[in-house]
Amino acid sequence: xxxxxxxxxxxxxxxxxxxxxxxxxxxxxxxxxxxxxxxxxxxxxxxxxxxxxxxxxxxxxxxxxxxxxxxxxxxxxxxxxxxxxxxxxxxxxx
Length: 94
Prior knowledge:
By secondary structure, the protein is mostly helical.
């Protein structure tokens, strides 16, 4: 067996392995346009899931930042509305 025969054998084995892999995934390799369409659908599904994840993360971060700003604002309003402590140190007027 020479190098050319070994190369042909390797190519045939690779083609058979790839075709069996696609068939086990439920893809008809005799129609390459259909396989391309299936891969395009999977790619679009992947991009949509990534976009949805990014939107959810942005929403959660926005809610956290808004809550933090609101808590600071409420604290500021409470400290501004509180009566100033008296300089004499007694709490009861005479």
